[in-house]
Design brief:
By secondary structure, the protein is an alpha+beta fold. It has a single domain, classed as Endonuclease I-creI (Roll), CATH 3.10.28.10. The chain has 6 helices and 4 strands, in the order αββαββαααα. The chain has a 4-stranded antiparallel beta sheet. Helix 3 crosses helix 4. The radius of gyration is 16 Å and the shape is globular.
């Protein structure tokens, strides 16, 4: 059995907690919120992803054409709230990535309460998500996301 601290350390270096948004006309407020926990690795070192999938007991592994890596991902809100987040509460991250995790965990909890289906809750989620991963690439700006809200 792999040690939980190893999982946390590996994720601290190679993982990410992400909240993405997709404009969707069929959704009442116009935006779909998609939380995701992922770990990327080059093909020649990707065996650890299978270990993580086994450890967490959920998620999937896929090949990413964009950067030629394999990715272990958990997207199910239930699995994020019941499996992934409790792991990182018990075995915390110590780097600046901890801030991203805390925002991610708060957003997942808000989604569990269905706050993303209410204008005020979705607006708050957008603002919180935009504070995460400040050096990462953003598909949509705050202005664009707020313009898509059907309030």
């Amino acid at each position: 059995m792999i040690h939980p601290d190893y999982i946390t350390g590996y994720v601290d270096g190679e993982g990410s907690f992400l909240i993405s948004f997709s404009p969707r006309n069929k959704i009442r407020l116009g935006l779909e919120v998609r939380p995701s926990f992922s770990v990327s690795q080059r093909m020649d070192r990707s065996e650890v992803l299978s270990i993580m999938k086994s450890y967490f007991g959920c998620g999937s592994i896929r090949f990413s054409k964009s950067d030629q890596t394999r990715k272990y991902e958990v997207r199910s809100l239930r699995n994020l709230n019941e499996v992934v987040i409790p792991h990182f509460r018990k075995y915390p991250i110590y780097s600046s990535k901890k801030k991203d995790f805390e925002l991610f965990a708060q957003i997942c909890e808000m989604m569990k309460r269905k706050d993303h289906g209410k204008p005020k809750g979705l607006s708050k989620i957008i603002n919180m998500a935009l504070k995460m991963n400040p050096n990462g690439s953003r598909r949509y700006s705050k202005r664009f996301l707020m313009s898509k809200l059907k309030i």
